[in-house]
Design goal:
The chain has 138 residues and is of the alpha+beta class. Helix content is 51%, strand content 31%.
Length: 138
């Protein structure tokens, strides 16, 4: 009877070790999944912020076209600038003369290490400039 009791204790010990290992693997998997999800959420937030910066760049380009000087960076709030955000406007086809009715502006937005660019094509409608098309640069 004593020998049979020892076998049961050995089996119980092995079973508990295997179960502890399974729990450890499960906890590690959950931790990795949470980490990956947090990184994906952060990337989605940065992408949304970059798209907002491109929209701000398009608005600024439209207002600068009326004044004649488009090229350069745009001023951003301190909270964005401290995060490494920037928006740069670069004319591709500039409205060089008063009779030019088209302009294409390259807008480059950066936030930390991430970047996104788009080309916005404007047409003049009377005295106002309107966006005709916008394409994300790949």
């Amino acid at each position: 009877m004593n020998e049979q009791s020892r076998r049961h204790h050995g089996f119980a010990l092995m079973l508990s070790i295997v179960l502890i290992g399974l729990v450890a693997i499960t906890l590690a998997s959950l931790g990795m999944a949470a980490h990956v999800d947090a990184m994906r959420t952060r990337a989605a937030a940065e992408d949304a912020q970059l798209r907002q910066l491109l929209l701000a760049g398009a608005q600024t380009a439209q207002s600068r076209l009326a004044g004649g000087t488009v090229a350069g960076s745009i001023a951003l709030p301190d909270s964005l600038a401290s995060d490494g955000a920037s928006v740069t406007l670069t004319p591709q086809i500039a409205a060089a003369a008063a009779d030019t009715n088209e302009a294409t502006i390259q807008i480059d937005a950066a936030l930390g290490r991430r970047q996104l660019s788009q080309r916005v094509h404007f047409i003049r409608n009377g005295t106002a400039w309107q966006i005709e098309s916008a394409d994300l640069a790949v």
